[in-house]
Each structure stands twice: as structure tokens, then as C-alpha cells.
Here is the input.
Amino acid sequence: MASSPTSVLSLSLAGMLLAATTAGCTSTPADEPAESPAAELARTEFGGLALLERDGHRLLTEAEEPQAVMQALHWGVLATNDAGCFGLEEDGKFVGIAFPHGSEPEDGAITWQGERFVLGDELAIGGGWGRSESDSPTRDAFDACEFSSEGEVFFGQGEMSRGEEWRAERR
Here is the structure.
């Protein structure tokens, strides 16, 4: 039996309609969990600093790559304060840190230049001490992180590494 051009055209159109209505449909087993999307990074700039927030953690960082850097070295253990801001703890005291440009909070840790630093890691950070005057935009960033009322914060502007790695490189 020969097919007419009309019946071939009808079957072709029916096939295209079926393909179009089922395109993109997939089935996922009910017991397979769907991937949760990564939490969005919120950024608020305060003068030369940026406050980054993700998953309830906050990180103060340089808003842009600094043109010149201070060369002091600060040590401590990565911690968060009551405001959820990252800093370093030394001798039982929390120290506010403006981490190096490019640092980001991620899953309760900090990432910087491909490295991941978790709470409890001993860090060595290059930079220097600075303060913010009460009328400066950076003062608002310090206040948002509940850093000390004296306004003194360590500005991480150079290298950041785990303490044991830093010591091993100097031997």
C-alpha cells in the first residue's frame, strides 16, 4: 500500500509536535536529592573596603587591589565573632581583619587565590595596622562587623598562608 503525500506530512507534523512537547522533560528518581544552588554573595562597599556576606558569614576585604602594601606580619587562628565576621583570634582575643582583596566567604571558610582556609586554621597574613576615623565610610564597615570601638583593624594586603606553611618556607 502506497502512502499519500498528505499522510506522510501528517505523520511528520505529529512526530515534530510530540518531540516539541516532550523536549526538556527528564525524570529524576525521587530518592536522588536535587543540588542546592550556591548561596549568593552579597557585596556592600564602604569607601576602600567591601563587606561580603554569604551563608551568614561576613568578610571584610579591600574593595580593590592596593597600589602599595604594608609589610607587617600578623598571626592568629581563623575565627568568627558574634556578628559572623571573620577575623583572627590570638591569646583568646578576637582581632578584626580586612582580608586581602579577592578573599571570599564560602561555606563557613575563606577562599583566596585558590586556597581554602577553614575556621581553626592558623594563618599568617601580610599587611599592617590601620584605624578608621568616626566620620570615615570605612568606620561603617568596622561597625557592621562589630570590630573594636577603637577602630583598629589589621589590613591584610600581602600574602596569606597557613602558619605551618609559612614557617616551612622560611627554613
User: Anything to note?
Assistant: The helical segments are 5-22, 137-144, 163-170.
